[in-house]
Amino acid sequence: MKVSIFGLGYVGAVTAGCLTKEGHTVVGVDVQAEKVASLAAGVSPIVEPGLGEMLADAAKNGLLSATQNHTDAVAATDVSLVCVGTPSAESGELNLQYVRQVVGQIADAVRASGKSHDLVLRSTMLPGSTQKIADELLADLHESEKLRLFFYPEFLREGTAVADFEDPSLAVVGTRDGSAFPTELAPLFGADAPSANWPGAEMVKYACNAFHATKVTFANEIGRIGKSLGIDSQSVMRLLCQDTRLNLSPYYLRPGNPFGGSCLPKDVRALVHEGRRGGVELPLLDSLLPSNEAHLAKLIEQAKRLAKGRVTLLGLSFKSDTDDLRESPMVEVAQHLIGRGFELGIYDPQLNLAKLIGTNKRVIDEKMPHLASLLTDDLAAALGQSGLVIAAQKCVDLDTLRPLITAEHTLLDVNGWPELRDLPGRYEGFCW
Known about the structure:
By secondary structure, the chain is an alpha/beta fold.
């Protein structure tokens, strides 16, 4: 492939070197003459292990050139990658000035050339940015099918960027509607790279970086409180990482129900209290319960907005396949709905009021003494012919549920049960 790369900073230079190593012809483009001259000579403009050798070989073999002229670069290539910076403004807002400037230049060059071209945005941008750029700068080219636009986030770490490019831990290609990218671009993206729509691909990049920042902050806070207690937190974290089933895994990383139960809320409170007692600031850990409460408040707000009369809860305990009601978010949801005067029915096959004991029984006695009148094992009676169905758990199989749902039902999916979309009622996801 013949590829032009706009922006010869960290991402652009590494991308140029790696693509030429794969046999592609690359034209680098930058406004800074020094970077252009450096790349054209096969000298890396940045320090990155392995990159200098690749660029030197590429220049020697005629696979690498560089220019300040965007028109010449677009004319000489089939696809352009935009790798310019997106710095923060003083307010924290993302500055897309350089992206917009470069995209405008590429668009003008495509219009002037009259040929078709592919444009790939690699610069990190907030969700909605690609769509806005397409609408404001590329609308005519899209309509005439002269230009195809993709968002292709980069996941390159400084110091290991070449290795990350050659063996990526993650790759995703953003297309307008999430459909598969054209097969002729597989050499650029990788044949197995999944597709997402533009905002989804944009969000993945931010989700990854926020997750990395969270992990660093979490480990540091465990380190600080461990130090205050005379504990070697390096060994604690090594042990934590040995659990690849729950800790370092997809487990728990699913948007949905707020956390509850007998362990997480209690243990977070205890750890935060211990930190305060020892004078150790733990902003991340200290934010967990307030964030969880805000998430619950959003769920209650959404349920109240969707409820018009009758409401049915599918699942009351804090998670599936248990009868534990301690700090269950659904108990809070039920309380608020009852307080607002909604007719409420609860279906949870795991609950047997006669067998509730101890703290579990006290929760009901204190918060929902009238639970017996709300709980039913008659699913059809609980659902009625209309109303809001809050699906907190998969406590009933779809074959049983399907004939009982009508077009007059609204289904609020709390924990990610995509098959509910296929039922007759109106579907709404909690946070998707």
